[in-house]
Amino acid sequence: MPIRLPTFRKKVLELLASSDEVKVMHVSDTPESSYRFIEELIEKTKPNYLIHTGDFADNIKLERRPELKPLYREALRKLARILKDSDAVIYVVSGNEDDPEIVREFFGESIVEPGSTVEIEGFRFALGHTWKDVVSLEADFRLYGHNFKLIERGLNGVLGVNFVLLPSRRTCRVKYPSGTDFDRGYKLWRGM
Distance between CA 91 and CA 89 in Å, rounded? Predict the structure, then answer.
């Protein structure tokens, strides 16, 4: 059954689906509960580029619970299938909750080191897991996740799924489904 979307989200998705511009889709810190949502976004918007800035199975806190590697591997297998089933070019950055060897197993050719810059359609995208990885890099867009910090020319993938339309440079954010932050292990948004 498809996910029911609020009216505003539907309008943003209609805009993205109807755009003939190049679409860059950015996600970060994705718990397994968000995978179906991400898959539907890919199907509806047909991005040309997919960027994940780490913590691929953010409900499995591998940094603190290394014994959960088998569950993490299965989660990564699901996410890799979703991302690779698209026709998009994929870039991924490992996060603090990721196992680099397992990430390499599923995304070897798509891995970018945190703090790297890639060129997409003539624009520079700085990629990192945290804002510190990208804040000092010269780039048109700085993509990261990990926490709720905002920086200049930065797109934080924790706050929502980001889309960059090129060449117009227009950006859109689609909020994750409710409960995503809870599934990431955040109990509540502080100060918001």
Answer: 7
3-state secondary structure of 73: helix
Q: How far apart are CA 139 and CA 149, in angstroms?
A: 18
Go through the chain and tell me how many residues it has.
192
Q: Return the closest-CA partner of residue 88 out of 128, 41, 56.
A: 41
Close Cβ partners of 147 (under 8 Å, ≥ 6 residues apart) = 130, 131, 158
Tell me the pLDDT tens digit for each residue of 43-99.
Answer: 999 999 999 999 999 888 888 888 989 999 999 999 999 999 999 999 999 999 999
Topology adopted by domain 21-184 = Purple Acid Phosphatase; chain A, domain 2 (3.60.21)
> How far, in whole angstroms, is CA 3 from its chain's centroid?
19
- Reference 45, options 65, 63, 27; nearest CA is 27
- Partners of 49 in the β-ladder: 24, 89
| Cβ atoms 59, 24 nearer than 8 A | no
Tokens representing residue 142 in the block: 């700085």
Calpha distance 124→141 (Å, rounded): 7
Q: What is the pTM of this model?
A: 0.90
Sheet strand arrangement including 154-156: 116-120, 123-127, 141-144, 154-156
